[in-house]
Task: structure prediction
Amino acid sequence: MSVTEYDVIILGAGVAGLTAGTFLAGRGFKVALVTSGEPTACLSTGCIDVCSRNHNPLVGIKELPPAHPYHLVPGETIIESLNNFQAAMSDIGIPYVGTEKENRLVLSALGTFKTSCLVPSTMAAAPQDTKASIHIVSFAGLKDFYPSYIISRRNNSKTSVYDAGVSSTMGIASHFEDKDFLKSFIIWLKEQNIDEDTIAFPAVLGLESAVEIVKTISTSVGKPVFEIPTIPPSMPGRRLFNALKDNFRKKGGNIYWGWPVIGVEKSGKIIEAVTTESKGRPNSLNGKAFILATGSFVGGGLTATREAIIENVFHLPVHVPGPRDTWFENDYFSFNHAIGRAGIKVDSFLRPTETPLENIFVCGGILADTEILKYGCGHGLALATAHVAAKSCMEYIR
Amino acid sequence: MIKTDVIIIGGGATGCGIARDLALRGIPHCLVEKGDFAAGATGACHGLLHSGGRYVVTDPIAAHECYNENLILRRIGEKCVEQTGGLFVRLPGDSKRFRELFLRGCEEAGIPAEAISSTLALDLVPNLNPEIEEAIKVPDCSIDPFRLCMLNIRTSQLRDGLIFTRHKVTEIVKSHGRCIGIKATDQATGEEREIRGNLIINATGAWANMIASLAGCEVPMTLAKGSLVITNHRLTNMVINRLRPPSDGDIIVPNEAVCLAGTTSLSVENPDKINIESTEVDTIISEAGRMIPHFNNTRIIRAFSGVRPLLKSKKVDAHEISRGFQIIDHQNGMYSIVGGKLTTFRLMAEKMVDVIMASFKLKKACETAEIPLDGQEELSGYPLSKRLADMKNIVCECELVSKDEVQRIITETGTRNVGDIQHRTRLGMGPCQGGFCTFRALGIMNDMSVISPEQSMDMLRGFLQRRFRGIRYALWGDQLREEQLVEYIYLGILAMEKPQ
Result:
């Protein structure tokens, strides 16, 4: 077995894990991040939902039920986490627009509005009301985007279809990275003689250069251009993940990619190491402190069996919201399924309660009582709790 | 107004069987169904073509009928029957006396049954519980109920039978006390259609009393709800039954790539208001797990319920009520045909059409047992190699359904209902249960302008609610994970609103 020493070991490469990792690495700590694969952030819209229940997300947070983990984050840390995020994204070249003081609207692929807080600049030009007319460009054979859904709600809108020669989200996005493709696309777009106020695209405008591509198209046709998030695979989600990952590496963080944790070494109240699989021999990563950011069920942090809910890495005690037949409401659209409250209960340092372990901190979607869909607080909560977990870690190590 | 000789209400196996029989005997007819084919008990059963074994102890006549029909259907409908064979397995603690009754019953009913050792049974089905004491081999088969209905209807369509699915009967038209026709509403457009006929056949299964009451008649019935679960894998190549008196969770049927396990039996009042209960799912899984232990760890993709239209009986436990059928002459030009089971649908249709022929004073013998079902040659299917070649156009990744196929069904059937596409292509039947592809299928319908975008939103909402009813009690493990992803897609990414 090979053994490597770190200050902090982070489990999970989502928004929470990478943010905590970057925070610590940027302050001189030796950080390793272990992930079994791509995070669910890649499936997301890339938007930072802070709290969608109130026009002012910070007011919305105050209105959340007392058990919500947002209440464990000091107000100034929430703001700090959003500011840090926006600054980092600007540095890396995929700027986000918006402020923590008010939510904004993102047009969805069904023509509805999704409420979010910080959104990728490629979605910034989305109309904030139903009046503006939109010209929707779709792509031949693209199976995850149907402009007619949007037109049903905005009958002053029109659509035209471009044949990119490929039909997948990823395929079209990589074509847009090609200068010649973009050039001939713009020629075609000009020929459409668009009268509408704005031009909308499914979010396929490039893999990494979306900001430039949107700017180029917008300048060429003289109209605002914006992207509409698609169902997975989601380019904006992938761009967000890549940016966070690059940022973490730039700060000196080390990623153990693609290997699940197969063992944990403990001594009394202290976790000493995690063991991951690797190509040759198991890898033992020793750390002074650990941050658990493995996400909820989709992310793989939690697994539900018929009898129980299990936390997959450390087998921490999981808060289970009642017997299995009460996990879901009968009404699909109730936005109140009890399963949304499953997760790890923590104290104000984000240390799990009901366990003697003292050098582990928990952040992101695996926390109990998040009810992320109900309150619209996914990535925002991940950023905020990642900051708290990282600070608790620093304090603990000192 | 449409005029015909016989109006059949109900597009389940019985109704479709009657349509085929009438077509073969040259009687003009029209079939009206409020949903799609096989929408009631026909499509909500385990798809077992009974050997009759299940009934030899409790209902020898039904058992004998089953075996005869089993032989006929294997002959005439080979493309919708899979000759899996079946085992009745006896577990430690199961009554040996029942075994004796079972073997004697099979002998009396003429059903070939062979007792085999547990070792041999495990050779045949390696997933079986190694603790079984013995097994009895019977000629059970699995059958595709939807395909069966479609093939029966094909004969009718080829001979000018008129078929209206998604049409709900709202009125039975009477004149001088006799039923002379029906009024039905097109569920998609709201358009009303009037159809006149000399006889009306009420083959609506669990809904028989509702239809009869439109004509002022009554059909005494007991409605018994049965629930089933579908696994994501095919855990056995043979039908596995429990060798004991009929009770909950005593059967596992392989069907294409999956298995269906059931059933339960609870009496209900209204066939339109049935819910699956958590305890039913748990019972089925633990009982099925006694026969095939791996069942406890396998991924369940959905649970569903059907309502058995049983003849009214004083017996309290619905497992014991006769599976026989009855033809009721309401003496006013309407007949109701109730009871029976999927396996004997052809026999039921034959007896019904015999009555119709007698009332028309016509003589032409039934041929449905001799002539193979029409249209089977077209069922060579859509081979995997071709599906993979079309991969670029695949809209349902779980079941490999292409966009072209969806468009073809829309064009050919003129359907405005995403359910019709699902039944005909298996779109949305896989592990994600339509989580990704229904959004796409409705988008395609939208693009083809067969439905308005408003309709597509309503359908998407309705679909999600219905889908959720089926998976709500099967949510743990990977299925829960999948469900959380789908919920995130619709409520998070697509920002679907609560229905008003």
Observations:
- The radius of gyration of chain A is 22 Å.
- The longest strand of chain A covers residues 261-267.
- Chain A touches chain B through 47 residues (CB under 8 Å).
